[in-house]
Structures are given as structure tokens and as C-alpha cells.
Design brief:
The protein is α/β, with parallel strands linked by helices. Helix 4 packs parallel to helix 5. The radius of gyration is 20 Å and the shape is globular.
Length: 339
């Protein structure tokens, strides 16, 4: 299907200007000016409609480069996007990410319209657990606090004491009076946290389809070829992978590390979208191909973003039942207290 829009006609000057704007960023990924030219009508139309409809596009770090550098108003990790959703004055939020993120945005901005470009963009971690599982765990461990990773659906958040991100999980765990912590749903993150606290961490069996594929053997093989490269891994990776990393953290922490580091070579061990973003933002630094693709994150594209702005289908609107939202928001509000 052609990317050219047939709905709005733009002048040659407008199209050339947009092509050059895209090329200034995306040329760092090997995009040619001709490729940027094919995307220019779509990005122009989307950006024009945003202004007309008082809409904002929030994009996760793992999104496609044409979304991040073409139409997004804010790009970040789950925590940063949650804060933006809570603070924005826009009436409509287009969330280019996955469903649990859009649900979180809706709960933090209940009076706003929140739309998902791709309604079927899920998450293996979020799908690994449901509300009844949390209720059952509470019965088994009545003296434990439930700390739940943000990568979960609203019904799970509603049964939790506090939500966390990879960045503030340890800080939240240490702040609670409970000596037992039920940490959900990421198995590897729970194991990584258990090494950093004296508290008893009770985990779950959820895994990220991207991060579970990384192995220490692969990274050690890369290190032999690139001995000067800094290895940055997500804490959703296994403890064996985390053990050989120069940094283990979330996407926001990885970006901060690259920005502040004097090193010139990096292995970004997470979803490939972050590597693309960093290649554009730090063109003088080298990023070794060591990432994986998330099939859910990559369901979003410029076409379904345009549809969400122009003529959204009912399934693109994100709704959370009021009783679930009210309970989940209490746990989310506690998360936002931790920077």
C-alpha cells in the first residue's frame, strides 16, 4: 500500500520541508531522502490533525523511528509516559505503545479520550497474570505487600498495593514496612531485585518475549569482538545476563547512561526501537546490533495513528471500568510519588 495521503493536498514547499525534517533525523539510520519523501505526506497530515483536534501522541522508546521522529510529541519509558498522560492539557491522547500503557494513561486522565492505534498490541508480561492470580497470592501470603510492575493490565493493578517501574522498583520495595514482597509478574526482574534487598521476594512466572531470548553466551561472544563496548541490559533479562552488564536498568536509565558516558561503543540489550532512537540522538557513537524485536510494539504504524486521529474505530478507544480504575489509580498514585 502506498504511504501517500490522498486526503489533504500539501504544497511542494511543505512536502520538501517535511522531507528534509525527517531526513535530518532518519538519515542516521540509513534512510534516503526518497524514503523520507514517501512518509512526508502522512506525517504532515498527522501533525496537522493533532493541532486541529487538540491531541497529543505519546510514543514508547520501542516504537518505529518514523513514529518517534515523525509525529510523536513525547517519547519515553513507561514511567515518563505515565507522568505525561497525567499532566497533559490535550483532550485526546494517542498512545503509540501497548495496551497496558494506554490503560494507565486512561486511568491517570479519566476525562480524556485515550486511543490505541493498534488495539491488539498486547504484552506477554501483562498476559501472564490476572486479578484472580493476585487474589490467590494474597491468601497464600497475607503478610506480604503486592508490588506490581507497570507492565500489567488494569485489573491486576487494582489488586496491588503499589505499582512500580524498572527504575523505582527497588526504592519502592525498600520503602514498604513489609518484610515479604509479592513482586509481579516478571520472574527475572523479581530474581534481580532479590539480590539487592534483604526482604523476601515472592515472584511469578511471567517473562518478556523479547528479553527472555538474550543469553550471557551471546553477549560474551559479542564482547570478544567489541571489548570496549559498554553492555546495557534491561532488568527484564535473566540474572545471568544482568551479571555481565555495565548497566542494568530501564530504557530511561540506558539513555541517560549513553548520554553521560565517555565511551563510544554500546550494546543495547533490549528492544530494537531504543537502539534506533539512540543512533539518531547520538550519531557519533556506535551501537552494536544486539537487540530484539517486540511483535506487539511494532503493531503501531503511521496508518493506524492517522486512523485514530481521523476516524477512530470503537475498538481504538481505551476504557477501564470505573470500579477497577478507582482501585488501580490508588496504586498508580503511589508509584508517582517515587521519582
Amino acid at each position: 500500500m502506498s504511504l501517500t495521503s490522498n486526503q489533504i493536498q500539501f504544497s511542494k514547499e511543505e512536502l520538501d520541508g517535511e522531507t528534509n525534517r525527517l531526513f535530518a533525523s532518519l538519515s542516521n539510520l540509513g534512510w534516503t531522502k526518497e524514503i523520507c519523501q514517501t512518509y512526508a505526506p502522512l506525517t504532515l497530515e498527522i501533525n496537522s490533525l493533532k493541532k486541529q483536534k487538540n491531541a497529543i501522541i505519546l510514543a514508547h522508546n520501542y516504537q518505529l523511528p518514523e513514529i518517534i521522529f515523525g509525529v510523536s510529541d513525547f517519547v519515553g519509558d513507561s514511567y515518563q509516559l505515565s507522568k505525561q498522560a497525567a499532566q497533559t492539557s490535550a483532550q485526546t491522547i494517542i498512545f503509540s505503545g501497548v495496551r497496558f500503557m494506554a490503560e494507565t494513561a486512561k486511568m491517570l486522565s479519566p476525562k480524556k479520550n485515550v486511543l490505541m492505534p493498534s488495539p491488539d498490541a498486547g504484552c506477554s508480561l501483562a498476559e501472564s497474570i490476572n486479578a484472580q492470580d493476585v487474589i490467590n497470592l494474597r491468601k497464600q501470603h497475607p503478610d506480604a505487600a503486592v508490588v506490581t510492575y507497570i507492565n500489567t493490565y488494569a485489573e491486576v493493578k487494582a489488586e496491588s498495593d503499589v505499582i512500580c517501574t524498572s527504575n523505582n522498583a527497588l526504592k519502592i520495595i525498600e520503602s514498604l514496612p513489609n518484610e515479604k514482597i509479592i513482586f509481579l509478574p516478571d520472574k527475572y526482574m523479581a530474581q534481580n531485585l532479590a539480590k539487592l534487598t534483604k526482604k523476601q521476594i515472592i515472584g511469578w512466572e511471567g517473562l518478556c518475549v523479547v528479553h527472555e531470548e538474550f543469553s550471557p553466551q551471546k553477549l560474551e561472544a559479542y564482547r570478544r569482538f567489541y571489548p570496549e563496548a559498554k553492555i546495557l541490559v534491561h532488568t527484564e533479562c535473566s540474572p545471568a545476563v544482568v551479571a555481565i552488564a555495565d548497566l542494568a536498568g530501564g530504557t530511561g536509565e540506558m539513555q541517560k547512561y549513553v548520554s553521560n558516558s565517555s565511551a563510544n561503543e554500546f550494546m543495547i540489550v533490549t528492544e530494537c526501537g531504543l537502539s534506533d532512537k539512540l543512533k539518531v540522538e547520538f550519531p557519533k557513537k556506535k551501537f552494536i546490533p544486539s537487540c530484539g524485536l517486540c511483535p506487539h510494539m511494532k503493531r503501531n504504524d503511521l496508518r493506524n495513528i492517522l486512523k485514530a486521529l481521523k476516524n477512530p474505530s470503537p475498538d481504538q478507544f481505551v476504557e477501564v471500568p470505573l470500579d477497577v480504575a478507582s482501585r488501580a489509580q490508588k496504586a498508580l498514585d503511589k508509584m508517582l510519588e517515587f521519582a
